[in-house]
Amino acid sequence: MIILTTNLFDPRKHYSEDELISLTQSLIRIPSHKDTPGQEKEIAYFMNEYLKNHSIDSVLHPVIDERPNVIARISGNGTGHSLMFNGHTDTVLPYNMTIDPYAAEIKDGKIYGRGAVDMKGALACFMMTLIILRRTGFVPGGDVIFTGVIGEEGKSEGTEYIVKSDIRADAAIVGEPSDYEYAVGHRGLEWFDVIIYGKASHSGRPDKGVNAIEHAMTFIQRVKQDLYPVLKEKYDEYSGESVMNFGTITGGTEQSTVADRCVIRLDRRYIPGETKESVMAEYQEIIDRIKAEDPTFSAEIRVTPDSLLELYHPPLITSVNEPIVSALRESIKDIIHREPTITRGIGWSDAGLLKTYANIPTVVFGPGDLSLAHTEEEHVSTEDLMNAVDIYCHLVQRFTTLAPE
Ligand SMILES: [Zn+2]
Predict the structure, then answer these.
(1) In the chain, ranges of CATH 3.30.70.360 domains
(2) CATH match for 188-303 among 3.40.50.150, 3.30.450.40, 3.30.70.360, 3.90.190.20
(3) What percent of the chain has pLDDT over 90?
(4) Is the pLDDT of residue 4 over 80?
(5) Which of 86, 242, 300, 311 is deepest in the core (most CB within 10 A)?
(6) pTM of the full structure
(7) DSSP code of 211?
(8) pLDDT per residue as tens digits for the range 140-182
(9) Residue in 40, 258, 59, 90 with CA at minimum distance from that of residue 165
(10) What spacing in Å lies between the alpha carbon of 244 and ligand 1's midpoint?
(11) From residue 148, how far is each of 64, 116, 159, 184 by CA, in Å?
């Protein structure tokens, strides 16, 4: 494969630092979490107008409850690869932030606020990249598509919409913060409820009932004893370990009544080779085994209601041999002047949906430090933002000029 490394234009000649800072600040100043009326609606309208004001084709696609995705496009001339930039427009709640989450204050070269790093900074960089392409007059070989999607912190409604639509590209970048590294894999993620059924009776006659709380304890012990060692054996070089977490447990009605029901909610992070079905089967096996020993034991496992729309949250598995990986690696190298590291074991992202359901080779790469996401003093440095714009612009020039196979 031949990658053109000469004659890359210099993005910094086509925009100013102030312009990028001001765009990032504008995005942070528009709250877009689940308690915001309309959620991502206002920010999507803002982004759409902003892009259109810079002569970019941009449209809103209402996804659910009038919450729209923003889809913008720089058309290519059809001689090369198309590339999608994907970023979510929602954020988590401000929780107990110690700074004003929406002031977007600047201190020591860093912009502070909810979403600064996860991932309004990346959204600003994606938008600026398209604007720069427009300003330079660079015509990519294939379309450069920006998808600003809703709901990634929830059910990923926005990217689920993308994969069910006819919007396609030869590769995609998801802009989750990666601190000059990049990820080609991460674990899948599903939430499950284990419902334990008992039989109520007066606490004075516990022998007449079946205690669901005690049976929940049995289930938990068996998972620790039988499943934990199995999970310990599983490892994927890009996704990391296969793990689970008992998140909540709710059961019983009152102290003087034998508990007739107990619900355990758990989170399961699974690796390539495992599926939602295979991990459910592991729990089902444990349920069946306990039941064989104790016929009064009754339980079932289900996907936690309301934890997804329709599609599951599979692992991301992109081959390191994909042209997008080498093009990105080269583009990061332009800036950091050394071979970038592959990040392993990051959290789930929309990249899993793009790769699994739309078969788009997808890599996670975005400005800032992931460990600052969702934190009390979330921030991103302007230097990281400018470097990301450089890298995205270099990537477009490299990847879209590759001839399609
Ligand atoms: Zn994110």
Answers:
(1) 188-303
(2) 3.30.70.360
(3) 96
(4) no
(5) 86
(6) 0.94
(7) -
(8) 999 999 999 999 999 999 999 999 999 999 999 999 999 999 9
(9) 59
(10) 21
(11) 14, 15, 9, 21
